[in-house]
Amino acid sequence: MKDVIHTIGNTPLVEITSFQNNPRVKIFAKLEGNNPAGSVKDRAALNMIRSAIERGELQKGDKLIEATSGNTGIALAMIGSMFGLDVEIVLPASSTRERTLALEAFGARFTLLENLEACRDYAEAKAAKEGFFILNQFSNTDNYQAHIKTTAPEIWRATNGQITHFVSAMGTTGTIMGNSMFLKRENPAIKIIGCQPAEGATIPGIPRWTKEYLPKIFDPSRVDHIVDIEEQDAIRRTRELAHQEGIFAGMTTGGALHIALQVAAGIAEGVIVFIACDRGDRYLSSGLFG
Fold first, then answer.
1. pTM of full prediction above 0.90
2. Distance CA 63, CA 133 (A)
3. Burial (CB count <10 Å: 0-12, 13-18, 19+), residue 111
4. How many other C-beta atoms lie within 10 A of the C-beta of residue 243?
5. Which of these CATH numbers, 2.70.98.10, 3.40.50.1100, 3.40.50.1370, 3.40.50.800, describes 4-34+150-283?
6. Residue pLDDT, tens place only, 99-143
7. Which positions ≥6 away from 26 have C-beta within 8 Å?
8. Which candidate, 233, 240, 275, places its Cα nearest to that of 255?
9. Could you count the other beta carbons within 10 Å of the beta carbon of residue 9?
10. 31 forms bridges with which residues in the sheet?
11. What is the longest distance spanned by two Cα atoms in the chain?
């Protein structure tokens, strides 16, 4: 018998067929919402907690605090409860009620602050002064190692090594860093495309980082192109993905699809994989779906 942690990973890779007509270009979505806590962050959360426990840094009964836009927090709440940790999550006040309800369901406490930068400052200060353990996903190499161990090998196998382009939104940048490290090692010609909000755009989960808060795990040399996403394009593609492909995902996924389609329009042939990072039910109260 296996517990729910063993269901993290091995998510489906499905072809997207509704948006472009070039038979020599295929686009696939990696459905990370199929993870048990509902997002790609299940992978990083598990690897960060498990690695800290193996190093003797964390043990049952410890108090864990983490700043997050939401998905990592929900994953930490679920996994932390299974390892007997006391979890507090710090997230922006703009987070949907579905997110905070999920945290409560897994038994975590939460604190809401004005933005993700403030959340990071608060969590780091509390960890320094009040005896909390902080994973600090923005500078924790166990974050991207999760994707070297799991996500990227899954994509490589599922595409029979034929992937030519990888597209991912950039939050902590753990997903794009880990996948780039593995995929470039297998084939240096694979293009890695990162997505960030355009100036003034708001896309939950992916801030447009200032230099001061840029995640320390981010290495720009591992990303071939960084592309801006307009808010309305992300919303439109998210809705189209649900209506035309039956994929119910969040706004970052719509943004990644939009960039994947731009890539597809500019190449004669190839295999593009983008990360569908979470489930759409996390955004129902936000008006994302109309």
1. yes
2. 6
3. middle
4. 11
5. 3.40.50.1100
6. 999 999 999 999 999 999 999 999 999 999 988 999 999 999 999
7. 15, 270, 271, 272
8. 233
9. 19
10. 276
11. 58
